[in-house]
Amino acid sequence: MNCPACNSILQECKCGQVLVDICSRCHGVWFDPDELRPFVEFLLKDQPEIPNAKIELWKKVRSPDSSSKPPRSCPVCGVPMKKFNYAYDSNIILDKCPECEGIWTDANDLHRVAVYKKGNPRLDAFGRSLVKDKRLQVLQSLHDIARLFPLSRGRLIFPPKR
Questions:
Q1: CA trace torsion 26, 32, 35, 36 (10° rounding)
Q2: Does residue 16 fall inside a structural domain?
Q3: pTM reported for the whole predicted model
Q4: Could you give the residue ranges of the DSSP H alpha helices within the chain?
Q5: What are phi and psi of 14, to 5 degrees?
Q6: What whole-number percentage of the chain has pLDDT above 90?
Q7: Contact at 8 Å (CB) between 18 and 35?
Q8: Which residues form the domain of 22?
Q9: Which residue of 3, 19, 83, 93 is most buried, as measured by CB atoms within 10 A?
């Protein structure tokens, strides 16, 4: 197989339980279907020094179409690959084959995916507190609504589910 970025021959490399294809020239990595997630999980376990993700509360999400790079050909099928934003909002633009569903990552993309996947404990704690606060608000609202309908008036009638 040839590299879709620089046309060099890809070398197979086993990392954990995943066999990936790496370009020795540009350091891009080809993942067959269902290999990216386990590889990133292996990477996070193997390299605990990967930094936490930055907290970006007002991040603008990029469209995959905003990339100026021309479409690359799949090293397996030869079909033009489609660009996509990893996890929809990471702003890490990767290439995916619409036929075989393999994924190409450029050299720096893989590290960025690992950082994104690792997340940030402070942001996770903030998210949990927001969810807890929202649940309390919903419960209070339900309690307030229930007080408007005393049980002595009879039962509330709800429309049937469709």
A1: 40
A2: yes
A3: 0.74
A4: 36-46, 107-118, 121-148
A5: -95, 125
A6: 51
A7: yes
A8: 10-120
A9: 3
**Number of domains within the chain:** 2
User: Which two three-digit tokens encode residue 13?
Assistant: 């490399």
Q: Which two tokens stand for residue 2?
A: 């040839």
Q: Quick one: 31 and 95 in the same domain?
A: yes
Return the higher-pLDDT residue of 59 and 84.
84
Written as one letter, the residue type at 29 is V
Tens of pLDDT, residue by residue over 63-112, are: 888 767 788 999 999 999 999 999 988 999 999 999 999 999 999 999 99
21 and 69 share one domain: yes
- The token pair at 64 is 């995959």
* CB-side neighbour CA atoms (13 Å) of 45: 9
Indicate whether 161 belongs to any domain.
no
